[in-house]
Design a protein that fits this description.
single chain; 103 residues; alpha+beta; 2 domains; three-stranded antiparallel sheet; 2 helices; 3 strands; extended
Length: 103
């Protein structure tokens, strides 16, 4: 008897405009316990020259170990594609500084 594969699931997630706008973070801290990972996102003032840098937490997300692995894989895939695109964009032959042919 053949094993049936479950149908592909499509997620239909709704959000409010406020949540859709997102928040800005320029700092993240990752910690974990036996049961979950916690990612804390913050906005910090890097221009402060004091030893203690002020910042404000803008979001904290607790996720399961399984989801953190999937998130890590998705981030790595997207970073690789972004780096490839940026690398192609920065090639000398794609820039606007190519000299015009002699006339």
């Amino acid at each position: 008897m053949e094993e049936q594969t479950p149908p592909e699931r499509h997620y239909n997630i709704h959000t409010s405009p406020e949540v859709m706008a997102g928040v800005y973070a320029n700092f993240a801290n990752v910690s974990h316990s036996d049961y979950e990972f916690t990612i804390t996102f913050a906005r910090v003032d890097h221009e402060v020259e004091e030893a203690e840098v002020p910042g404000v937490v803008v979001s904290r997300v607790n996720v399961s170990p399984r989801l953190i692995q999937e998130l890590s894989d998705a981030l790595q895939d997207n970073i690789s594609r972004w780096q490839a695109r940026e690398g192609i964009r920065d090639l000398p032959e794609t820039g606007d500084d190519t000299p015009d042919p002699p006339t």
